[in-house]
């Protein structure tokens, strides 16, 4: 393939630092592959002294395969790997580590669950809490933040510190390293042992880094140590596609690269070979609204193509049905849907869409497995209430709902496997106010027993104080109450038209089975339209892309309050838009869960 002047400049650069700003679809992987080959063939640089590093195993494998194909060889002495893989190799050589010293994901979550049960009480009931605490631990370690100066965003600072310290001690006791420790230990090794550092400097004389915008502080520190003093550091990335702040990625590292390396040359790969003219121009209008970025103008040799369209729908159901019906028509015409993607901001939003795809029998592949709404702890709470209302008196169900909202009922008051309200009143006979609460609860359960699931959940929400409990809990967990209330809305919505608890639970069972069947199908064969979050689709491209729910609260996400968080959300939207080669459809809804919804501010920025 003929290379443009910017690509050529990057390919023939042999020594010293260089930053390549690579816009979407600008051929950055080809540049890395061809530069590596050029260094060996024309620059006479030994292949064994070249390190090509990226962030995911899949990307490292793909890079290596493309390189071997390009040079027409079966093997090479160039080292291709991820940061974790490279640092593990360094530690292995220094400390004789083995795979047994590396903490598996299962072990990690098992320790975190244990610590959360110990220090975070009911947060251990939440599936996503463990994931969030794990991300925050990574951020603290990856950016070398001292614990007393870190303000947790998923729970109180005190609980976070206790879980963090407990987790750290558990790892030490088991003589295990997690992924973040590998990086930390590597940094400490290089810091304490200049002899070992020098050995690796002689080994890796030339370093190429892909997706540099995703780097964190600690990875960058090690990279700088390793590259010195020759500083043959060739970094490739796009500050406009930095979307992993939650993993510790810091776009400012790339923005400050030329300050750290004043002699660094900069090349801008400004030709986008992927998108049509109208798609690229619309995307550039949006990303141009960010202030913390390298200013750049991208062009494309592709034709103008069809204009980007923006559609408004009354509600999500109408939006999903309209998109799915259009796909069904294409399917009936014998068209292939594998060139099409439907993108959403979060996985949770995929539920209604997946239902519509199943209903219309449109084949689809999900980039990540859809979380089952009915496995959420809020759903467990509501089911427990409805079971109690139907006459169930098991201790297990009572524990699930007795203090949600808080009624100050103690576990000690429940010695038996079955609950008796009379025995409860007997236990609290000296406290009239507690006896009143227990009687009120009993009366409320009797009322619930006469209602349909939809009306019953309405009564639990408004008449029994459950919504207020969720608001207080959200404050304690440092999350926006809307997050929990939206989950509650979605569960509530699913009970519409259900005549009793049995019918609703049958629906939940069938839905769960469909989800599992879909997951099984996908393991065997990927087919149909791709359904994905904006994060998971980075690096991919499709002829046709739909981005749904482009509303305030979804895109940008409701958690994005600070300006830098809004800028990251804008970058994420830009990543989604630039996945499309020929056709891009943006859609928003006017109402959801009986509430009005605002279109996203980003839609205004598109100029559509």
From TrEMBL:
Any Gene Ontology biological process: recombinational repair
Binding-site positions, ATP: 22-29
Residue ranges of domain UvrD-like helicase C-terminal in the record: 277-539
Protein name, UniProt field: DNA 3'-5' helicase
Positions of transmembrane segments: none
Family under the similarity heading: Belongs to the helicase family. UvrD subfamily.
EC number: 5.6.2.4
Keywords recorded for this protein, A-Z: ATP-binding, DNA-binding, Helicase, Hydrolase, Isomerase, Nucleotide-binding
Origin superkingdom: Bacteria
GO molecular function: 3'-5' DNA helicase activity; ATP binding; DNA binding; hydrolase activity
InterPro entries (UniProt xref): DExx_box_DNA_helicase_dom_sf, DNA_helicase_UvrD-like_C, DNA_helicase_UvrD/REP, P-loop_NTPase, UvrD-like_ATP-bd
Occurrences of domain UvrD-like helicase ATP-binding (ranges): 1-276
EC class name: isomerase
Lineage of the species this protein comes from: Bacteria, Bacillati, Bacillota, Clostridia, Lachnospirales
